[in-house]
Each structure stands twice: as C-alpha cells, then as structure tokens.
Design goal:
Length: 359
C-alpha cells in the first residue's frame, strides 16, 4: 500500500502517512519486503502495536512493516518453563496466558499495550518487574545479512528502559520470537510500594500471580493506563518520560532543593525507589511539583487527568502539539530541579529528536 495513514495504527492517534506499508505474517514475507525496500533504497521501520511510538506529522518516507507473526510454544526446562512467543502476539495476552497456568515472572507487566516483539527493545517494565529478568533469548532476522540469529538474554545489553536493540543495534534486527523463562507455581513479585499498598488495601496478604495481575490492572485502570477506546485519557503512547535514575549525590541535591521549596517536610524525602541502576525518582511527581496539574492543556494536547506521565491527544492533535507540551514540561522540570526528563516513546519519521536540547 502507498501513502498509508499511520495515526490509526497508534494508541495516541497521531502520525502522517507511510510512503509504503506492508503487513508481514512470516519471516519469508519480511525478507521479501526488506529486499524490496533495499532495492529501492528506502528506509524500513517495523511497527508493532503502536503503543510506544510518536510518528511525525510528515509520516515515514520509506516502508513501514506491520508485524503479523503469531503463535507460541512451551518447553519444560527443569524447574522452569520456556515460553517462546511470536513477536506479533499481543503482550497482555501472553501475561494472561502465563498467569492462567500459574507461571510466575511477568505478572506485574499486566495491562501494558503493544506486542511481544517490542518488549526486549524497550526492556519493558512496571511495578517492580522488567522483562530482562525473564528473557532467555531473542530470535531475530539480521536485516544487514538476512540471516536468522539467536541472541541470549545475557547479550541483549539490557538497561533501564533500553537494550542493544534501541541503542547500538537500533533498526538492525527484526525480532521474530522472544523466549521467556518462567517459574511454574512460583511466587509473584511484590516489591513495588504502590502494588504492595493496593494488595494490603484489598486484604490480600499472600497473593498468587493472578491476584497480582488483577491488582496491577486495577491500578493501571484508575490511571487510564489501560487502552480503552471509551476513555479519552488513554489516548496516549503510554508514559511519555522515563523515571530519572540518579546517583546518591544527585539525590542529595534534589532533596535539598525540594525541602528549600517546601515541597516536602524537613524530615521527608521525595518519592524514590532504590535499584541496581541507582536511585529511581518519580517523573510524575517531578512534573506535578514543577506546576503541571493533571489535565493541563496546551492546544489539543494535554496531560492525562489521571496520570501526569501520559500526554494525551484530546482531539485532533498533531505530533507537533504533543512535542510542544513535552518540551514545556522538560524545560520547567529542568529549571526547577536541574534534572532532564528523557522521553520513553520511539520517535519515527523525524530526522533527529524533535525535543529541544536542554543545557
């Protein structure tokens, strides 16, 4: 297809047309499409569920390949099960499948939109879990050579919301399958404070994975972080900014700033969560503390009325409207706290990052 509109393929409903567009449902179709594009010297972009992308108003000047690979397979491996899933499967379906079979390891990642193939690229995570904890291997086609490769999870170079597929190998691999190593009958992960508090509210003291999944979906629903065509606050690309990870010295500087501004008490600390990468801050708290209330509008773009991390299309927004609000938020947070909020979505069809560089 030519000049195919992309906005309706994304959860935020924004984006111009693809010069060429194709749906592939097998590796062979993919290789044909890639060869076709290379012969015409046009770029290729792989589009999955459209939940973590912002496509430019000009669209994409090459071939957009929409992932249609389906299917899954289970192999027992001692005390574990290996669940190999095709990249085009809906992610939340896979979580539901695992939980229904009492396999622990991805229950906290419930309700996240998009397809399986995107999860290792972003190192998808939420409520105390990341897919990097369970990914055994990634099967992909190397678009430079046309060869099928199997990359162990240990070689994916996972970091906080990133991987080699988003950094040094961005655009190189088409992920066809992801294999997850899960624990049959294992305990769920409950280490995120908000999740633990919700379970306590519900008088659930020893939850199983299904109860944790239900709790996560309930928390996401009240923040409009479940895709729902009847909820305008869910017309977003998910969290627009990642939670900043800082050193102890940077955290101490932030504490001094927020106490001086009276945002916390003399003996209080801003919301934070310790991890291997460092001290993780709440981007939503920083945004609201910088003066942006939920529902703040700038033209047809707005912060969600339910969650300060989501920028929503309230009707007729263009990519430039979403970027304008994101720019304003980043500048204000930097001015107030000296911290740079990094975007989470992938920008498509832009020659460079559309966000204004900060000092």
């Amino acid at each position: 297809m030519c000049n195919h509109p992309l906005g309706h393929h994304t959860t935020i409903g924004v984006g111009g047309p693809a010069r060429y567009f194709a749906v592939v449902s097998s590796p062979e179709q993919l290789l044909y499409a890639v060869r076709w594009a290379h012969e015409r010297e046009v770029p290729v972009f792989v589009l999955g569920g459209g939940s973590n992308v912002l496509i430019s108003d000009e669209g994409f000047p090459g071939l957009v390949v929409h992932v249609g690979l389906r299917g899954w397979q289970v192999v027992e491996d001692g005390d574990y099960v290996l669940l190999a899933v095709a990249s085009g499967e809906r992610w939340d379906y896979v979580v539901e499948l695992a939980v229904s079979r009492h396999w622990a390891g991805i229950e906290c990642l419930s309700g996240i939109p998009g397809q399986v193939g995107a999860t290792p690229i972003q190192n998808v995570g939420a409520y105390g879990q990341q897919v990097s904890e369970t990914i055994a291997e990634v099967k992909a086609i190397d678009l430079q050579t046309g060869q099928t490769v199997v990359i162990p999870g240990s070689e994916c170079e996972f970091g906080y919301r990133t991987s080699r597929f988003r950094t040094r190998d961005a655009g190189r691999f088409f992920i066809t399958h992801v294999t997850f190593k899960l624990v049959p009958g294992g305990p769920p992960t409950v280490r995120y404070p908000e999740l633990a508090a919700y379970l306590k509210e519900q008088n659930i003291s020893n939850p199983d994975p299904a109860q944790v999944r239900g709790a996560v979906r309930a928390i996401r629903a009240r923040k409009s972080m479940l895709v729902d065509p009847n909820d305008p606050n869910s017309r977003s690309c998910g969290s627009f900014f990642v939670n900043p990870v800082v050193s102890q010295d940077q955290f101490n500087e932030l504490v001094a700033i927020v106490r001086r501004k009276g945002l916390v008490g003399r003996d209080e600390l801003p919301p934070h969560y310790g991890g291997k990468e460092g001290i993780k801050l709440s981007a939503a708290w920083l945004i609201e503390s910088a003066g942006f209330r939920r529902g703040t509008r700038l033209g047809p773009a707005a912060l969600s009325q339910k969650h300060a991390l989501a920028i929503v299309n309230i009707g007729g927004a263009k990519a430039r409207d979403i970027i304008a609000l994101a720019d304003l938020i980043r500048l204000r947070v930097f001015e107030q706290f000296g911290l740079v909020l990094e975007p989470e979505p992938v920008f498509v069809g832009f020659e460079k990052s559309p966000l204004t560089p900060l000092p």
